[in-house]
Design a protein that fits this description.
Layout: H1 6-10, H2 14-26, H3 29-36, H4 40-54, E1 59-62, E2 65-68, H5 70-91, E3 104-109, H6 111-128, E4 133-138, H7 144-149, E5 155-158, E6 167-175, E7 177-181, H8 194-199, E8 201-205, H9 214-221, E9 227-232, H10 238-242, E10 247-252, H11 256-263, E11 266-269, E12 277-284, H12 291-307
Parallel strand pairs: 3-4, 3-5, 8-9, 8-10
Antiparallel strand pairs: 1-2, 5-12, 6-12, 7-10, 7-11
Helix pairs in contact: 2-3, 2-4, 2-5, 3-4, 6-12
Length: about 300
């Protein structure tokens, strides 16, 4: 909290301080008036008001022009840097220089999005903005909007759809679902048939503990069901689990290449229709003009497009 007494500022015209600084620099009322685009009487009147405000002559006429008094010199020494800083704050366009920035960005995302996105994103940040820090908060489609709205994260990489009036959502890329298994546990060939799919146990990721998903709705429409034997809110637990049990996992396709390469899993399209997974950037409207966030969103758009 700033400790200023607003009543003190009611008695001060900040334009007078500009006159004080220009008078010191020019040493002449006429030259100061010219620089300030004012008439000489206006500058003389400002000097009268300054003398009253500080109870000091401030400037006296000499053969060399208007010479500052010790009180004026002390004021100018203190006020000059402050006025320069105020000028920069008020009139310099907002900017963000990645290479020299030491910004901290707080990002919300689910664990599968983090696994898919963050290795490449962090590598680009290290290269282009080595002083920038990324802090990831675990989220899910039910919490993304709340975290952004409450200011707990600056930006969410969201698979949800809810967009409160105070937030903005920009769809970037789409994923589909695929089905994975470990070849040492299930001897299956891709693409899976519907019969293969329902004949084996399944593991399911659910952020709210549900034991069914849109896949089950599609199966029901075909007169089929599957057996879900394990439910977890974490995608990261599935690869070691599949290595130990004969089961299928239907997950976002963004995980497939990495899991196949690192865990030796088999992969197939899902043999029923599945919904699109739309990945969006979600941020608060109050940050629309935030140059740092504008830069990060641009980096995210490029990285997410490159990964898809």
């Amino acid at each position: 909290m700033f400790t200023i007494n607003e009543n003190d500022f009611h008695r001060i015209d900040l334009n007078l301080l500009t006159v004080l600084l220009v008078l010191k620099r020019e040493g002449s009322v006429s030259r100061a008036a010219e620089k300030l685009h004012l008439g000489q009487p206006a500058v003389s009147n400002a000097l009268v008001r300054l003398r009253g405000m500080f109870d000091d002559p401030l400037f006296v006429r000499t053969a060399r022009g208007m010479e500052p008094t010790p009180r004026a010199e002390a004021l100018i020494a203190e006020l000059g840097p402050l006025m320069e800083q105020m000028q920069n704050v008020l009139f310099q366009p907002a900017s963000f220089t990645p290479a020299g920035a030491t910004h901290v960005f707080r990002l919300g995302m689910s664990d599968w999005v983090e696994r898919w996105l963050m290795p490449e994103l962090q590598a680009r940040i290290n290269r282009d903005a080595p002083g920038v820090t990324l802090q990831v908060t675990a989220s899910d489609p039910f919490r993304d909007a709340e975290l952004v709205a409450r200011g707990e994260v600056d930006l969410a990489i969201s698979v949800g759809e809810s967009t409160p009036a105070t937030l903005r959502r920009e769809k970037i890329v789409s994923h589909h679902f695929c089905t994975l298994w470990h070849p040492e546990q299930l001897y299956l060939q891709a693409p899976l048939t519907l019969e293969n799919y329902v004949a084996h146990d399944h593991v399911l990721v659910s952020y709210r503990g549900a034991t069914s998903s849109a896949v089950d709705d599609q199966l029901a429409a075909l007169g089929k069901t599957r057996s879900v034997r394990y439910v977890t809110p974490h995608f990261s637990s599935l690869p070691p689990l599949l290595a130990r049990i004969p089961a299928l996992a239907t997950v976002p396709s963004g995980l497939a290449d990495d899991w196949v390469a690192h865990y030796g899993l088999g992969c197939s399209p899902v043999p029923v229709e599945t919904p699109e997974i739309a990945l969006s950037l979600l941020w608060h409207k109050r940050c629309d003009k935030d140059m740092a966030l504008i830069w990060l969103k641009d980096v995210l758009r490029k990285v997410m497009a490159d990964l898809t």
